[in-house]
Amino acid sequence: MRHCSVQVRGLLTRDELDRYNALMDVGHYLESQERYDLVHTVQKEIDILILPAIERLKEKSRQRDRDTEEYLRRKELEKELARLTADDDED
User: Fold this and answer.
1) φ and ψ at residue 4, rounded to 5 degrees
2) Which domain of life does the UniProt lineage start with (predicted)?
3) DSSP state at residue 91
4) Percent helix / strand / coil, the chain, rounded to 5
């Protein structure tokens, strides 16, 4: 059984996390019984279950990129304002 990343698990809702853990337990049991045909099916269910959390992680990343872009734009404006203020002081 393949675990999802810690970041993705952290973004699972309580219900999703409970279901994820239950499916992992079932998958590990099936592996111990060497029922790899069924393990594959359980793994596919886990992969489907974590898709919303993966999307939430992507959205957090996109938001962080937007925040960084806004910060850099603001810094550039502050730098330009400081330059213009310095130019006015010289006159």
Assistant:
1) -85, 170
2) Bacteria
3) -
4) 85, 0, 15
Burial state string for 35-57 with b = 16 or more CB within 10 A and e = fewer than 16: eeeebeebbeebeebbeebeebb
**Are 49 and 16 within 8 A, CB to CB?**
yes
For the chain, give every domain's residue range.
Answer: 6-90
Pairwise CA distance, residues 22 & 62, whole Å: 31
- Crossing angle for the helix pair 14-32 and 36-49, to the nearest 10 degrees: 170
Per-residue pLDDT tens digits for 33-74:
999 999 999 999 999 999 999 999 999 999 999 999 999 999
DSSP 22-62: HHHHHHHHHHHTT-HHHHHHHHHHHHHHTHHHHHHHHHHHH
